[in-house]
Each structure stands twice: as C-alpha cells, then as structure tokens.
Amino acid sequence: MWFKNLQIYRLPANWGITLEQFEAQLAKKPFHPCASQDMESRGWLSPLGNEALVHAVGGQWLVTLGFEHRLLPSAVVKQEADERAEELAEQQGYKLGRKQMKELREQITQELLPRAFTRRRRLFAWIDPVNGWLVVDAASQSKAEDLIEQLRHSLDHFPLALLRTERSPMSAMADWLAGGEAPAGFTIDQDCELRSIAEDKAAVRYVRHPLEGDEVKGHLEAGKLPTRLALTFDDRISFVLTEKLEIKRLDFLDIVRDQLGEADKDDAEALFNAEFALMTGELSHLLPAVVDALGGEIGGEASSVSTPDPAPALATADDPPF
C-alpha cells in the first residue's frame, strides 16, 4: 500500500463526521458490475476486500472507488454497421441515410454490449479527518475528479477545497534553481523540466543531470520556468513537484521501508496496515513541509458542497511520462 502520485485537497481540520457516518453514506453507492447495457459502472469497494468500505488505521481512513468499463471499440461497431448497411442497400436499392446509419450503430451497440469484455480498475484516497487532508493516488487532477465527484454524490455534506499556497510552485521552483538551494528539509535532485512562457512553449528536460550549473540558470534568464522538479524530503521521500501542486513519482526510500522489518510478511492484512500507517505517517510530515516551502497555505474555509452537483468536464488523457 504505497501511493505513487498525490492530488491534494483540503478538508476542515477536525472534520465533523464519524467513521460510522462516513461509511454509512458511502454504502448508498456501492460498486456493482456493469449491467448488460451499461458502458461503465462505478461505486465504492472495500480496500481490503471485506465488508468495510472505509479502512481505518490509527485514525487515518482509506477508501477505494471501483470502476468497470466495457471494451467495445467504436471501430468494431462501425465495421459491423457498414457491413449491414451494404446488405440493406442491396435489398432496398438505395443507401441508408445519415439518420438510418445512426440508428443502426445504436442498435449494434446494444447488441454487442452484453458480449463485450470488461476491464476493472481501482482508485484509492487517503483521508486524514483530524488534520484535514484528502489525497487521491491519481496521475492527474482529471482522474482524481472521478473519485471527488463520487464523494459529492455519496456524502450529505462535503466541505472540500483545493490546496492553495501563497507562492505558486512554478515561482518557488524557479527561485530554488536560480539560488541553487532547496528550502529547509529538502534537496534538489537531478530531474527537471523547464518550459518557455512564450507562444512557442519551448521546453527543456533534464533527466539524471546536475541542475546547479550555469546552463539551467541561463534557461531561467531566457524566460523558461520550471514545470517539474525532482526533490527529496528529509532523506526519506523522493518525488517530483509540478506547477499544478501535484506530487508525482512518489518513492519512499529504504530508510522508510526498512521500518517494516518486523511486520509479518505472511499476514497480508497486517502488512497492509503496517504499510498504510507508515505511509500516512510520512506524508503527514511531507505535506505541511511542502506547504511551508511554498510560503504557507492561503487562509479561508473550504467551500461547502452539500448537494451532488456534477464535477466540471475535464480532459482525461494521461499525462506524458516524465
């Protein structure tokens, strides 16, 4: 149980909902496999595969959103529709019109859906109800919004807000690179991406390359700004910070993982609990440190979300590898 990416949100500290209330509200929308005519299904799953929809360890909560999607490529539907359209054209002596083709494709989709293969995936989120963190293990904000939207539909009251800091990550990362020094507790690693603010969007990417030389400073002086920067915190966690305040390529170093030495590797649940407790303990130190490095958190209470309004439409394409 190790998160790889962090999409970070804020809840009020000491969020006024009990574990029992939270689980009861999630139980309104459990996961069910796709029905015969469903293209997709989603709902809450037990993180451990038992009856509990919220897994709690040391006051930290873990929830899992399950997805099932039918694999029915549009090319398959189009091919079948074209073949049938040709047969119908020969029978009736003229080609099908646009409306008839649309109806034919819809009919074929309904016929093929029950026979289509399905693919399942899971999305995890960690909730710290005392300190007000909600973190989704997703590679992009658009993917995290799938889980956030489901929470909006499941909970009677959901006072969520995006994490906002006094300084933008891009501005702070530029200062760290220009000065050749990371904030207290952090070290700058050897991966970085710089992108021009001009229309050409020219970009330079460094991978396993020293970043303290004049070359990087020259790009900064030429108007390129960092969109990603690899950092290590307290010699315990390495990660990539992005201009959107995302944490990617999260890796808990050996000094952290070695603390599992006494965990029972043959007891899957005990090992899962030990990893989750260790991970959340480390992240509880990392997240405030990142916020402090970015000038502190902008004040203001999280906006209340008491009705299940649909989430805004966002792109769903995967981020390019870094």
From TrEMBL:
<feature type="region of interest" description="Disordered">
    <location>
        <begin position="301"/>
        <end position="322"/>
    </location>
</feature>
<dbReference type="GO" id="GO:0043590">
    <property type="term" value="C:bacterial nucleoid"/>
</dbReference>
<keyword id="KW-0233">DNA recombination</keyword>
<dbReference type="InterPro" id="IPR007476">
    <property type="entry name" value="RdgC"/>
</dbReference>
<keyword id="KW-0963">Cytoplasm</keyword>
<dbReference type="GO" id="GO:0005737">
    <property type="term" value="C:cytoplasm"/>
</dbReference>
<dbReference type="GO" id="GO:0000018">
    <property type="term" value="P:regulation of DNA recombination"/>
</dbReference>
<dbReference type="GO" id="GO:0006310">
    <property type="term" value="P:DNA recombination"/>
</dbReference>
<dbReference type="Pfam" id="PF04381">
    <property type="entry name" value="RdgC"/>
</dbReference>
<comment type="function">
    <text>May be involved in recombination.</text>
</comment>
<protein>
    <recommendedName>
        <fullName>Recombination-associated protein RdgC</fullName>
    </recommendedName>
</protein>
<comment type="similarity">
    <text>Belongs to the RdgC family.</text>
</comment>
<feature type="compositionally biased region" description="Low complexity">
    <location>
        <begin position="312"/>
        <end position="322"/>
    </location>
</feature>
<dbReference type="GO" id="GO:0003690">
    <property type="term" value="F:double-stranded DNA binding"/>
</dbReference>
